[in-house]
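Incident log, structure service

09:12 report received: a user says their structure output differs between two submissions of the same chain.
09:20 pulled the input from the user's history:
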Amino acid sequence: MPLTRQELESKLWQAADILRGQIDAADYKNYIFSLLFLKRLSDRFDEEVENAVASGVARGVALSDRDEHEFFVRSSARWPALAGASMNLGETLNCASHAVEEDNTPRLDGVLAGTNWNDESKLGSPANRERIIRSLLNHFGGLDLRDESLREDAAGGGNVLGDAYEYLIDRFADDAGKKGGEFYTPRPVVRLIVELLQPRERMRVCDPTAGSGGMLIYTAQYVREQGGDRRNLALHGQERNLGTLAAGKLNLLLHGLSAARLEAGDVIAEPGLVDESGRLLSYDRVIANPPFSLKNWGHDFAPNDPHHRFDRYGAVPPKTRGDLAFLLHMLGVTNPQGMVGVVMPHGVLFRGGAEGKIRRGIVEADLFEAVIGLAPNLFSGASIPVAICVLNRAKPAERRGRTLFVDAAQEGCFRQGKARNFLDREHIDRIAAAYRAFEDVERFAHVADLEEMRANDFNLNISRYVDTTEPVEVMSVEDALAQLRDAERRRDEAVAKMDELLAELGYAR
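09:34 re-ran on a clean worker, output below:
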């Protein structure tokens, strides 16, 4: 019987219980992800062998012919060999991980081998490592991860394994607290940005701070929902944290996006998405949730940047705040018809100095299309409110010289939870509808022209453009006097009644 998503999610989360308390929550996701993928590769390999034999291929050929398999898994890396090992389990898994990468290079480079199953600092003493790994092997041994057991729900069109993996990433982000925000953007926020950018098939899409790959995955899902063929998308990304990069590659693979390209490295100092001549690739849509106010973002490198990304709008971002450095990179890789959708802290909207100069340059270039403030506490470990900035190098004629400001941080634009807040479908729809309408809505949205932004000295703080205060009714002098006379009358009546009661009791004033 096929696994349901809920059953798989429960089983995977139980695997986390084996590691919880043993190692840091920000680290144990890598071990679970790696073992999940090894089990998936082995089960799928066996299934491909069975299918090939059923179609008339000799078993020996089906086991050895790489053309029969999406990913080749040698016998020493298959699950029977892993589960049957009696000692040195960490070394067994390390060897299997390296073998799988070697046999499937470059597609699986960096996906498994970065997880060290003999890491004493994480898994403890040899005896403790053996105990933990054996528990995990036993736990995953009960999962059947063949395609036949993971058939997509015909009604929902979901990807059972991919969705369960996304569920794990979400839960791990909560467990990891502040560190969770480094690899995970809440999916409703991702959905909102993608729906604002409206990517289409045949587009090139990039996430320069890709994390666990969610923005690229939902881009493909959105295109499919709109009737497009996601195979006709070029999905690229870069991530400097190697553990997170591996999680992102796995996420894309489990969602059937094996053609996506993820590069390792610091996108500021070492942009990896370049052509054969070393020039930056350009994209139709650039989407990201960069690190907030990164202190050591590469300021010393910026003036000598061979791609001239950081000196186009009047100043170089300040040394201790890298927010606009990431935005400038995004603009630098956006083609003349392209758009940017980025999550930013509110400070970039109003801080002065170099950031003020850069903001002025971008406003004068007429690139800001929308600035949308979201509720606080939407992200794991980060309670600050954020803004989604949409920039467009090819604004429609009716939007040129104008920018939409939306205050979606108020009641009715999010759902309040215990640990964090949430965007539901109704909230996403309301914000997206406001963006599409591009018109004033009292206490919610305002369209400002360049003159208004210049008059505000290029301060883009949303409260300068959208007044969310409830109007206070001002009473006329005549009405105030009438209310005063009425109050005096009621007071006199109350005093008279009190005197009457006192007199009945024999107390006269």
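09:41 both user submissions now match this output. Likely a transient worker issue. Closing.
09:42 reviewer note: Confidence is low (pLDDT under 50) at residues 153-157, 177-181. The longest helix spans residues 25-54.
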